[in-house]
Amino acid sequence: MEQTGTVTVKRGLAQMLKGGVIMDVVTPEHATIAQEAGAVAVMALERIPADIRAAGGVARMSSLELIQSIMDAVTIPVMAKVRIGHFAEAQVLQSIGVDYIDESEVLTPADDKYHIDKHAFTTPFVCGARDLGEALRRIAEGAAMIRSKGEAGSGNIVEAVRHMRAIGDAVRDLHAAPKEELVTRARDLGAPFELVAEVARAGRLPVVLFCAGGVSTPADAALMMQLGAEGIFVGSGIFKSKDPKKFAKAIVDATTHYEDAKIVAEACKSLGTSEAMPGLDVRNLPESQLLAPRGS
Amino acid sequence: MARIGVLALQGDVEEHRASLRRAGAEAVAVKTREQLDDLDGLVIPGGESTAVMRLLERFGLANPIVQRVRSGMPLWGTCMGMIVVAHDVADMEQPSLDLLDVTVRRNAFGRQNESAEVDLSIPALGSKPFPAIFIRAPWIERVGQGVELLASRNGHGVMVRQDNVLGTSFHPELSGDPRIHAYFLAMVERARRLSRKRSTAA
Predict the structure, then answer these.
(1) In angstroms, what separates the C-alpha of A154 from chain B's closest C-alpha?
(2) What is the pTM of this model?
(3) By Cβ atoms counted within 10 A, which residue in A45, A204, B73, B183 is the most buried?
(4) What is the mean pLDDT of residues A271-279?
(5) Cβ partners under 8 Å of residue B21, min gap 6
(6) Strand, coil or helix: what is A88?
(7) Which residue among B31, B47, B113 places its CB closest to the CB of A122?
(8) Is the pLDDT of residue A194 over 90?
(9) Residue ranges of domains in chain B
């Protein structure tokens, strides 16, 4: 018997990425830099979130030629983004063989009500979440990996911290809850009872949880790992910095040794006076420019 | 109780630790040179081999691991772990620890869409097939002298042993079947007996 596309192999690839850094890249050259710096996977896209933000308009799945050229350039897994609810974009990415599909709020949603039925795919999906209910709804739809949403392209970690704390607090709370509360908890979370019961029993999500959105320094990565992230997505933080090679290595080192402040300090020092990406105060962004509330 | 380290630079570390504990060992995460000192065996888990090879060298773990294993400490590499300990990687200039005389080919069974659950025949573990989970898995293309081929999938080597080093292309830590963890712990027990005998003789 040989079976592909099972829940175990879909969730399994995310398990292999744990403790690692997944980097947004827009060219094969970026992808090679990311791989040499120790990235465990790359996210292939035409524009990093900070530039999507600046460009405005409708952001769609990237050109297949670009994604393919990145797949050809590296040996690590390659992920790519589709618009929320755009299952035809996902079918296309599956057919060219990307390793993971990100149903992402960074692109302009195609469906303002429903997400993709991810069980229908062989290729695994990662989805964003701001809280436990949202995470469990995505898992119920078939997501094999969850990431915080953060506020992509802002260079500001505050939203990712909020989401990681919200998810972590809710998981700890459920783990301590008596059994008779679980049905009502499931109703309040807006999530299927079976998944709520599973989280209550295990004290963790049934899939791997990464942090995404706003990581731009080694200390940001160490912070998120200590808050319970099992790995880090870095979007604009590397290739919008002044020295991408150095930033990539420093963020990898800090993610590996997040609990050792001396090593995180060395990672910070290795950057010298190179500047991190410029940041945005999320509170000053008009609601129409916020990405995290897209899809819930 | 045997004390087994799981290399924790990156990868599915906790899954291996849980499986080792269920099989009756103490299982500790290893990130530094000092943590290698009092181990009876080491597991290198699944993960990304380019990332982990860089971190092994960056944090000075590569040489100490090689020395410990050359002096008899059992080591088991799963998927990425097997790539990291192989002699070489086919068609790639990838550094490795060269503790297992095989040539591996990375992602040989394909990308993620070809990742699969397979009922694998492993005669050394008895007649019941092993639920083997392959994820962007490598295969073993060349086997050196003294390397025992323990299992193959569609004619490609996927499990090998050379003295105190075990390699699997797949992930027993994800399957819930404890037999390969038990097999490795038996290798560790033999090595411990041998080293006790040596120290009494001395």
Answers:
(1) 27
(2) 0.96
(3) A45
(4) 81
(5) B27
(6) helix
(7) B113
(8) yes
(9) 3-201
